Amino acid sequence: MTLRHMKIFLAICENGNSVTRAAEALFMTQPAVSLALKELESYYGMPMFERLSRQLFITEAGERMREYAAHIMELFDEMEKGLRDWDATGVLRVGASITIGSQFLPSYLKAFHVLRPGVDIRVCINSSEVLEEQLQSNKLDFALIEGTVHTPNLICEAYLEDPLTAICSIDGPFAPGERISIERFRAQRFLLREEGSGTRDEFDGAAEAAGFSVLPAWESTSTTALVNAVIQGLGVAVLPRRMLLGPLERGLIASFEVEGMDMNRKFLIAYHKNKFLTRSARELIELCKNYELDYPAPKYNGLY
User: Fold this and answer.
1) How far is Cα 207 from Cα 214, in angstroms, rounded to an integer?
2) Which helix (H) or strand (E) holds 206?
3) pTM of the model
4) How many domains, the chain?
5) What's the alpha-carbon Rg for the chain, to the nearest Å?
6) Which residue from 275, 24, 5 is spatially nearest to 153, judged by alpha carbons?
7) pLDDT per residue over 190-209, tens digit each?
8) Domain that holds residue 53
């Protein structure tokens, strides 16, 4: 007994209890329709139609069967529509590290809302370390992460370059655009993002590759706090350039280069290797990848 049997049975009922007309309506052969009816009656051990003078007359059991079958098919159609339309509504759980969440994600989601206004997007902005844990525990569908991912079960796709920039105060030890040695740089007082953030991981990795390590004077989750400390001449910081455009343009801070340090990094789209990505999730991922090609360049607000 299958949905096919119910569909054929209902077609017979809806076409004047005629096997011939039901076969025509379903684009089936008459013997195939007759066989399906016979299988249905055999399954329940009772006739659904009486056969008199080459005509079919629905029985009391057949009437009951028709009511149930119509209800079941209606529910089935509702289920089909609901599941197939789920991507047009539903919930999408997206994570973003702090730089991406504050400077990029709002523009991405504004554009995506135009494409999929019915999708309810839940956002979590946190450190890369926390986002990796949430991807592992299936609390997020995917995340936009800065720098390096350390969890082997995650698939990562690089999609945008975002260099780190070293900064000091305007009246600080280095002139704007000055290129300094690693020896001079490592002797500075460092104001850094907290451990576990993508920015910190990338800087620590670049410092290690250059042959030194850093014990920061300040650690903070707030880029604004670090920049304010730099403005006051309390040390140097290394932060994402897009987060610094405002204070750099206003002349509040100066950026400089460090010889022999590679501080280029990429933004990553990360998701669990066993995660099923819905159509909406895949569409948002593609929008993020192609955003700067398909949409006007966003105006990064920086911090001021």
Assistant:
1) 8
2) helix 198-209
3) 0.64
4) 3
5) 32
6) 275
7) 999 998 888 898 899 999 99
8) 3-84
